[in-house]
């Protein structure tokens, strides 16, 4: 059991105590979508990725993390990292959005 004075943030893997993030930048879905010039936001709009919107926060967060690790992701990178389920089946649009965001980021 976690002592009451320890706050734990839950991620898929791993779980980290909040104190482990002290001094580090924390990126939230709110901070990404508030930036209308963010490459993923632009790409998602231009590629018309969302349909119902149910999965979009997770898709955008995962795509942003993927692009931070792999600025020019291969199809294998995208397949390995983008494991969120989209109930509308917009996987082709998501892939196109990631490619577009990558191109925008690398364009400078």
Task: Write out key terms for the chains shown.
mainly alpha, globular, 48% helix, 5 helices, two-stranded antiparallel ribbon, 2 strands
Q: What secondary-structure arrangement, pairings included, does this model have?
A:
Layout: E1 8-9, E2 16-17, H1 29-34, H2 39-46, H3 56-69, H4 75-81, H5 91-107
Antiparallel strand pairs: 1-2
What do these coordinates show?
It is a single chain. This protein has 108 residues and is mainly α. The protein has 5 helices and 2 strands, in the order ββααααα. The chain has helices at 29-34, 39-46, 56-69, 75-81, 91-107; strands spanning 8-9, 16-17. It has a two-stranded antiparallel ribbon. A hairpin with a 6-residue loop joins strand 1 (8-9) and strand 2. Mean pLDDT is 87; it is low at 1-11.
Alpha-beta content class: mainly alpha
Mean of pLDDT = 87
Strand order of the largest sheet: 1-2
Low confidence ranges? 1-11
List the helices and strands in order.
EEHHHHH
Largest sheet: 2 strands, antiparallel
Radius of gyration: 15 Å
Helix share, percent? 40-55%
Strand content: under 5%
Outline of this structure?
With 108 residues, the protein is mainly alpha-helical. It is built from 5 helices and 2 strands.
């Amino acid at each position: 059991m976690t002592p009451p004075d320890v706050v734990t943030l839950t991620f898929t893997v791993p779980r980290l105590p909040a104190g482990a993030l002290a001094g580090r930048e924390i990126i939230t879905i709110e901070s990404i979508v508030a930036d209308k010039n963010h490459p993923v936001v632009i790409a998602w709009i231009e590629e018309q990725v969302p349909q119902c919107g149910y999965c979009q926060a997770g898709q955008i967060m995962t795509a942003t993390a993927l692009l931070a690790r792999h600025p020019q992701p291969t199809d294998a990178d995208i397949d390995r990292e983008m494991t969120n389920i989209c109930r509308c089946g917009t996987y082709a649009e998501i892939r196109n959005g990631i490619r577009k965001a990558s191109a925008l980021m690398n364009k400078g």
